[in-house]
Each structure stands twice: as C-alpha cells, then as structure tokens.
Amino acid sequence: MGKFRLGVIGCGSMMENHVRGINQLDCVEITAVCDILRDRAESVAASLGNDPKIFLDYEEMADAVDGVLIALPHHLHYECGMFFAHNGKHILMEKPLCNTEEECVRLIDYCDEKKVTLMCAYPVRFWPGIVKLKEMVDSGEYGQMFQMSIWTEQLTGLNSSVLDKRRWGRTSCLGGGQLFSHGCHYIDLLLWFMGEPVYGTHVGTNLGTPWMLREGTSAVTMKFESGAIAYHGGTWGARGTRLLYDFQIHTEKGMLEYDHFAGEVRLYDSNQMHRPGEETESCQYQVVWSRGSDATKETQHEIRHFVECATTGKKPLTDGRSALQGLRVIWALYDAEKRGEIADLRGLGLAKDGE
Ligand SMILES: NC(=O)c1ccc[n+]([C@@H]2O[C@H](COP(=O)([O-])OP(=O)(O)OC[C@H]3O[C@@H](n4cnc5c(N)ncnc54)[C@H](O)[C@@H]3O)[C@@H](O)[C@H]2O)c1
C-alpha cells in the first residue's frame, strides 16, 4: 500500500510542529497544503520537498487526499470537519474538537455515519514519557495511585508577533479560556489515567494575562470514582517557571514524575525521601526512562496512530467521544464556577451517548 495522502489545513504556529513530526514518518505524505494566506501555505509546502498542491480554499482539495489534519482557529473546526466527513475523508482535528457540545455531537455522529475516522489531536497522550508513566501506574508495582498533579506554565500573547498571528485567540473564537484551549490536553489525560470523575472545581483569572477575554490562568481539582484526587494548574502568564510541564503521581510506594522538558520519568522512592538539612547528593530519585534531548511537541506519535486507525478502521485512542467527555468536564467546571458551586462530573462520558 502507498503512503497515506494527508492534506494539512491552517499553516500557522501549530502546523510547524506537525510538519516536523510528519517528516519523521514513512507511512504518510503531505499531498495538499491549505491556508487562506498564500505565503503561509507556500512556506509549509517549501519545507516538505515533495511539491504538494497548494490551496487557498480547502473545499477544492478533497480529491488530493485520503485524510486531513485540521489546525484552524477553533470556531472553524466544526464546519471544516463536516465538509471532509461529507467527502469521506478521515479527520485528525486539532484540539479542542469543536467549540460547543452540539457541534461535537453532530460531527461525531456524522463521521460515524460516513464511516470516517475522527481523532482529536492530543499529542500528550502519545508522548513516550507519558506512555511510560501510564504503564508504570497500570503495572500495579507501585500500589494504588491516590493523587495526580499536572502543571503547565507558559507565556503567550505578550510578544506582538504572536498576537498578530493569533488575533482570534483573544476573541470568543477561542471558545473558552486557557482551560478550554490548552487545559483540555490535561483534563483528557487525567480522565485517561484516573477513570470516571465524580466532582470537581475550577477557578480562573485573567489577572496577569490581560490580553485574554476569559481566564489565562486556571486551577482545577477533581475527585474520581476510585477515591483518588487530581490537581491541574495551568497558566499562559508565566514570566518565570521552574516546573514548565510537569506530571506527578503519588502512589502507595512512591512518587512518579514525568518532566517533559528534561525528558525524564523519575521514581521518588519513599525510602530515599530527602529531609530538610540532609545532604542531597545521594539522589532523591531514580531516572527510569530518558528521552534524550529532543524537546519538540512530538506530534509524530499521534499522527502515526491516526494513519494506523484511518487505514485499518481501528478506534483512535483519542476519538471524538473521548474528546467530548473531556470538554463536557470543562464545560461543567465552568458552569459550576459561575454559580460558585462544586461541579457534578458524573455521567459525562460514553454512557451518556448510549454506548
Ligand atoms: N497541540 C498543541 O500543543 C497546540 C498548540 C498550539 C495550537 N494548537 C491548535 O492548533 C490549531 C491552530 O492554532 P495555531 O496556533 O496554529 O493558530 P494560528 O492562528 O497560528 O494558525 C491558524 C492558521 O489558519 C489559517 N486560516 C484561518 N482561516 C482559514 C480557512 N478558512 N482556511 C484555511 N486556513 C485558514 C490562518 O491564516 C492561520 O495561518 C488550534 O486548534 C489550536 O488550539 C495546538
């Protein structure tokens, strides 16, 4: 079988990461590139070396592709997804799937009807360090997990060239605040690691990120059916950071950590716990997995999975329904925050859709 013919739509900041990922894969070839801004489409096409067709209107590119990667501003995801589903093309949709529940449900149902693969681009789920962390938790070797924390600290929006490029990100086109737009990765991850949520809270602020229409900094707490709890803190206003992207899991036998930028999975054994005043040279942790120096967004793993699902009919790990559950959690957290209440997060998953 020949290579999967992929069309890419929206040649902005995220597409640069995707092209780096795709260039590492043998199973897929970008045959069509689309952006309403010709120079952006041309610049992506020039970085490929296989002379793909360039389009300014995605409605003209369906014949040139087996599937598409949609990396458009959020308010355009639904319409573009529906167009390619209608044309029988497989869809890898950048997160968040769509801006409303109604759009998500319609797109999911339509892709089912047209028998096309719909996958949401959540690359974090496929990062080898995260996969390693999940395997360690699932092995049972460390006992039960009782707490997971995820921190993400970034600065977006201060730099004027970023603002010019992503003006839509400061408007209602974003569909929500930092939690909806970026935190959706980590709500998705918490559900994957921890199972069905029971209740939770969100508080957000746009102090420190005045360019945001809604919150630029979020704190989420959640409790799960297992009894375990989770915390997610994310900011787009960090002028300094120590943690960057950090994932920590407390289990009965120790603490497991994935430090994304260091590219390490670490085990902090309770017997080696550092106490104040003690020498720190006897290492507090053991490195159990190391990535090496590549600190890109690592999208090649999710794209490989998408192509495998599209060509075999396998259900994607991050399919439309699992993406929708994560967004429902976020919408429930936002609604409860407005009312000053704790959000009831039960029954937002697949059972609600009759599966
Ligand atoms: N996974 C991640 O870590 C990550 C990071 C950043 C962005 N994203 C996602 O990627 C998507 C795009 O974000 P971005 O930061 O690249 O935005 P961007 O504004 O940098 O790029 C969007 C591009 O879409 C083009 N465009 C707009 N309307 C179009 C249309 N009708 N047809 C064709 N092209 C059109 C714009 O000209 C622009 O080049 C969003 O869903 C965003 O959430 C994901």
**Overall geometric form:** globular
CATH topology of the largest domain: Dihydrodipicolinate Reductase, domain 2
Which class do the helix and strand fractions yield? alpha/beta
Topology order in helix (H) and strand (E) letters: EHEHEEHEHEHEHHEEEEEEEHHE
Radius of gyration: 21 Å
CATH superfamily of the largest domain: Dihydrodipicolinate Reductase, domain 2
Q: Enumerate the spans where pLDDT stays under 50 for 5 or more consecutive residues.
A: none
**What about the largest sheet?**
9 strands, mixed
Query: What is the CATH architecture annotation of the largest domain?
Result: 2-Layer Sandwich
The count of helical stretches stands at 9
Are any ligands bound, and if so which?
nicotinamide-adenine-dinucleotide
What is the domain tally?
A: 2
In percent, how much strand structure appears in the residues? 15-25%
CATH class of the largest domain: Alpha Beta
Residue share in helix: 25-40%
- As an assembly, this protein is single chain
What is the terminal-to-terminal distance?
A: 33 Å
Question: How would you sum up this structure, described in words?
Answer:
The chain is built from nine helices and 15 strands. With 355 residues, it is of the alpha/beta class. It folds into two domains: 118 residues, 3-Layer(aba) Sandwich (Rossmann fold); 190 residues, Dihydrodipicolinate Reductase, domain 2. The longest helix is centred in the C-terminal third of the chain and has 20 residues. The structure holds nicotinamide-adenine-dinucleotide. Nicotinamide-adenine-dinucleotide binds next to helix 1. The site of nicotinamide-adenine-dinucleotide has 26 residues, from helix 1.
